[in-house]
Amino acid sequence: xxxxxxxxxxxxxxxxxxxxxxxxxxxxxxxxxxxxxxxxxxxxxxxxxxxxxxxxxxxxxxxxxxxxxxxxxxxxxxxxxxxxxxxxxxxxxxx
Length: 95
Known about the structure:
- By secondary structure, the chain is of the alpha/beta class.
- It has helices at about 25-40, 60-70, 85-95, and strands at about 1-10, 15, 45-50, 55-60, 75-80.
- A five-stranded mixed β-sheet has the order 1-5-3-4-2.
- The chain is globular and about 35 Å long.
- The relative contact order is 0.30.
């Protein structure tokens, strides 16, 4: 269930929950997203799951890394109720 859509600080997003199904991050894509953020482009929100304590990344890994590379402190996010397992399943479905 979608809780809310709002910006969230990058340092609040957990990337260590084995929710990234890809073998590696594509640096060219990260660079392209960083350039887009620097140009003030509006990109789709990332997808996070919140378990009451942690925000688990499910979709938008490249956008999140691009936002960081562009020097942003926060990124728009669709936040759903759930934990790392929910984020893992949603990530597999998105990719």
